[in-house]
Design a protein that fits this description.
- The chain is an all-alpha fold.
- It contains seven helices and no strands.
- It has one domain.
- This is Erg28-like protein.
- It holds the Pfam family Erg28.
């Protein structure tokens, strides 16, 4: 069973491509739940009301990031795609940090800390491994 699954995984040295795919699948789950319910969105943002429109907009933004990251997983050596994936993490970090520190619409809790940790870890990892994956 795992042999058949392995044929669909990225073909790349290192673990970064697998990380990109894992984060992309997680983002797809997050998008689906944002389309379906406000329950998890309300755990991040402390602004009332949290609207269905806000959740769907966030879902589309998250799904777009998932597509870029999944594409990067399978094209990890392409400079343009690698850079685009890095920007998705930078945008995510900027969004969640600004909602907490500037706009005060989010408070520190696991729902906020998780995307900050993922975006920070991914940015540092991708920056440090840039020359390994992107050959000039």
């Amino acid at each position: 069973m795992f042999g058949a699954l392995a044929t669909y995984l990225p073909k790349s040295e290192g673990l970064l491509a697998y990380w990109q795919l894992l984060v992309a699948f997680t983002a797809v789950f997050n998008s689906v739940q944002n389309f379906a319910t406000l329950k998890l969105t309300r755990k991040i943002y402390n602004v009332k009301p949290n609207t269905a429109l806000q959740a769907r907009t966030f879902a589309v933004w998250t799904l777009t990031s998932a597509v870029v990251r999944a594409y990067a997983a399978y094209n990890i050596h392409d400079k343009n795609i690698y850079d685009m994936a890095m920007f998705t993490y930078l945008i995510a970090f900027g969004h969640f940090s600004s909602e907490w520190l500037i706009f005060r619409t989010a408070s520190v809790n696991p729902a906020l800390i998780s995307p900050v940790i993922v975006s920070t870890t991914s940015l540092i990892w991708m920056f440090n491994q840039y020359s390994f994956y992107v050959k000039a």
